[in-house]
Amino acid sequence: MRRAALVAGGAVLLAWPLLVPRYFVFLTSLIVVNAIVAIGLNLLSGYTNQLSFGHAGFFAVGAYVAAVLTVREPALPVVLTLALAGLATALVGLALGVPCLRLEGLYLAMATLAFGFVVVEAILNLDWLTRGNDGLAVPVARLGPLALASDAAKYYLVLAVGALMVAAAVNIARTRTGRALLAIRESEIAAQASGVHLAAYKTLAFAVSAFYTGVAGGLFAFVVGFISPDAFDVFLSVDFVAMIIVGGLGSIPGSILGAAVITLLYDWLAAFQNYRPLFFGLILIGCMLFMPGGIASRVPRRTPPAR
Amino acid sequence: MRTGLAVVIALLVAAAAPPALAQQGVTDSEIVLGGSNSFSGPLAFTGEQATRYGVDLYFKVVNDAGGINGRKIRTIYYDDGYKPQEAVANTKKLVEQDRVFAIIAPQGTPPVVATLGYLEEQKVPLLFPFQGSPVTRGRPWVFNGMLLYDRQAKMMIDYLVGQRKFKAVATLYQDDEYGKSFLTAFEKNLAPHGLKMVAAESVKRGVTDVSAQIAKLQAAKPEVLFLVLTPGPAAQALKERQRIGWTKVVAVSSGPLTDERYLALAGDAAEGVEGLSLWPDPVASDLAALKRYRAEMQKYFPKNEPNRYSLSGYFAAMLFTEGAKRAGRTLTRSALVTALEGVKGFDSGILPPLSIGADHETQKQGFWVRVEKGRFKQLTDWLKAE
Amino acid sequence: MTTAALIHVVVSGLATGSIYALMAIALVIIYNATRTLNFAQGEMLMISTFVGWAAWEALALPLVVVLLVAVAAAALLAWAIEWAVIRRAISATHFDVLIITLGLSLVLRAAAGLVWTHDQFPFPSFFDNRPLVLGPVRVAPVSLGIIGGSLGLMLALGALFRWTRLGRAMRAVAQNQRAARLMGISVERVYSASWVLAGVVGAIAGVLIAPVVFLSSSMGLVVINGFTAAVLGGFGSMPGAVVGGMLLGVLENLAPLWLPAGIKHSVPFLLMIAILMIRPSGVLGRARQRKV
Q: ipTM more than 0.90?
């Protein structure tokens, strides 16, 4: 039954560019990109209770690494570019994660917030590489002989990478690492007492989360085709947090759903011009007041969650 | 698994084929135009003024007079908050979902540049973007709006160094494309005079204190200080100059800055400031076309005060109308481009008679002003930069 | 760079710094009571300053009355927000409340834009902009006025916390909510009072700074520097907030004098990260004890 649903869903996703207008293909790509970030953020926040307000910074690092690697000649194949974008961002995540171990709660929120600002400043200052405030046009991604120029081609790239990332995230929970992370979520002290190396796993969560976000940033650069520091402001970090809160902390389907809701909301609200932030803010507040557990908590589960 | 892969590859190949193109946005009774603009974010005020109170104001007048060749004009705007990715999304939506005929008066260099490639590929005219970086020059489907920054900078150096014989120039500029475009062009145009910029300091967007930058600039003892900023920081710079009693310098504002809003902010600290003006005074000019603009604003948007941002949008709509009229009843995108290229000596009553031609640049002139008793006083006739 | 110019730059930095300090104090007041960050603090400042300005425009009131109008508006707004939104979310986590205040900041800024447009406006000042000449040194009365006004307000707050019943209740809640409740303090009243007090501090800061940074829907962004100042001083400490604000203002002004163009704009954020990494309890704070 579940298998049939998965196959049907997969078929619809594969046929999607043939079924819907071009613009929705583009929009779906954005949703998947955001979903990867949301899953990455959830690995950090959902498991280790470290809420980051700096994921726009990781996203920017990934986007710029991918863009810079593609701008230079000869450009690398897109798969390699994305992997490097993810790894570079994971390194940045490690560098931030280690000192952040000492911080918790709001202090962590503030440190990550500041990190987001520092990334934007760094992009502005490395203008020989990033072209600063002017922004960087990202060339078309190449996969062997194929140029992934059309919205549909980009969509398949994003979908393939997204599927891989989702599968990995689902399976993390079944590994030793995943169980350690879950233990940390339930109680840091209890986990430590049971022999879980708290610092190592928390740092690992930071790096993995950054990896996800970096890969998504790379995809974002290709999907949009142009990046500038203005794209990665603090409100983007807030949007990411909103995605996982709306979707439900710690839930992978929730992350995807949250990403879809926030992305579509943004798209829909653009037409309201100067009313847009007003409505977005009100919806955000409404969600927090009336749906504290997120959408995922509203979906009845048939089987009790494995804990 | 293998068949799945084959399907993916087949779909990828199919998807890589270029999309079919159809004429759109023009019916027997209507022309649809659109644009992504800032209705939130740092440029929300300019965005709203240029579109809803500028472009739309002129089109309301045109529509009430029967439209262009019998067609009414409808506009659609989406907010991008000055973010390029949202500008791309909005522009795609406008072209693919709303099926607009052309993009009119989008704002800001990064959002506009982000959409250039896509619009070019779709062969959608990008009309009169509200930005002056030369990156939009020499593109077949773009018609520039604002006087491009490098032309402005040349005009300013030609006038101040060439005519008024100033030797020591310094610049306080915004740390982005706008500021840097000017700075580069200033330096390039100083070189033939055998001069160098004596000091240049940058200001971050939205800064609140410029005392350190002003102190450093003062130490370099320039005769002329260029301000390539937005109204807030520029007014702060002028107030800071007043605060330290630095009177022996001519402060000069760039074209986009020379506007009434920053005069109001700076108050008496703006007295004696000079600048390159791109538009006649929207509030006080007694040109017939400006009086008409104010009367129409009073009629359609009585609560909105006239200003240069809405005037620039108003002018963009006026140019579109002229082009669309020339293109005639069979209005297509390429017919519009040809018609706009053929505009010669068009007398808007706002700017001097204007010819567009193959370079796709509309505004090419400005004039020099000085602030006297809180208003801009015109010092020269229209200057040229060739 | 002459010494005279340097003095001017430092004084100017102290003036900006005192505003950061006031923002930091407002944030700390709310943090101490409710353990949340109020991201909407800057927008509350902006709205109350706008209301004062609107009264000034419409009725040409004297500036002191404008200040009172702004303060009253701020108190009302803060009370309403606490009562209508924050209190409803009391069962939510601190992060939920954080997101709520972020949402509020979007809503308030957009609302201000709808009512007053996103334009910038000049704001009347208590103090002159022309310099006082003291030998070779020039200082602006407006800078001195901002510093003096802020210090006065800080002293008043200090007195309030030390000697009034409300102040003592607020300190008690900051130290231990449960104990405070057991001692018969109405914690809800303290929540409400904290919001109102923070709003009032913001309104005064807004009226002081608006002539310098101008009135606009985006003036609330100063809250980010308020955060940095609060972190520098050790979040939760009032004297720390003052020191942090002043330090930040001066460093921010001195950095462009010597540092290469490259990193001068990043100073506040680099400072914030450095402090969080090296000494999370802030320059003045003491290390916190962690309870199991």
A: no
